[in-house]
Amino acid sequence: MDPFWLFLMLFLAFVAGLLAFNAYLEKKRREALEQVAVRLGMQFSAQSVEGIPSRLNQSSFELFQRGRGRRYCNWMSKRLIDGTEIALFDYQYTSGSGKNRSTYRMSVFSAYQEDLWLPSFRLHPENAFFHGIAKAFGMKDINFESHPKFSRSYLLRGQDEAQIRIRFHPGVLSFLEDHLNYAVEGSGSHLILWRSNQRVQPEGIENFMRLGEELVRRLSRI
After folding, report:
1. Which contiguous run of DSSP H or E holds residue 197?
2. Number of Cβ within a 10 Å radius of residue 6
3. What's the pTM value of the predicted model, to 2 decimals?
């Protein structure tokens, strides 16, 4: 056989095997997450859907405006005793093209509470990329002299600085100092929490959910 065709066949077999293996891993993840949802008394939907749920889409969160091919799946949700609606889901989007094409995947916690009424803000781990975004939108980093670790670790921005400072009281600042490298966006009745390009393993879902719930509770106290 011609070496070229032999190489092509081997390459195609490798790609097919890789796709099959990835599909197997996704299936195992989906099954494990469904078991977690049942244990936590949450509704579960494995369906992979383009875009994002309309309620989150209306929030205009920056995360859901990045890239293209935005999809979410493995959606689990429940309503808490106080009426807060929470959800956890896998989310992905693609940016760039050709050799620079990258797909980002992450687990996202979301909360909807009618009387939360957060000022619009974006919180990200401190890095040059998000500094560039902030400058492009004419937004400055909101720092807190009382919590230098928070100010060193995070870039916090938003139009209504006075209201943001009220919501980011010492209880919130200390909590985020103890839980670094998370990103948070809030607006009105909505809040989302995630780690950049990191999916939470099934065994860590409950802790991730509790962390999100605690952050919502602290931001509610003013």
Report:
1. none
2. 10
3. 0.86
How far is the CA of 69 from the CAs of 10, 25, 65, 102, 192, in angstroms? 30, 21, 11, 11, 20
Q: What is the pLDDT of residues 15-34, one digit of tens each?
A: 777 666 676 778 999 999 99
Query: What DSSP string runs through 120-185?
Result: EEEEEES-HHHHHHHHHTT------TT-HHHHHHEEEE-S-HHHHHHHS-HHHHHHHHHSTT-EEE
Query: Residue 22 phi/psi, 5° resolution?
Result: -65, -40
CA distance 146 to 152: 12
**Residue whose tokens read 């299936």:** 27
CA dihedral 101, 104, 105, 108 (to 10 degrees): -150
pLDDT 10s digits, 137-148: 556 899 999 999
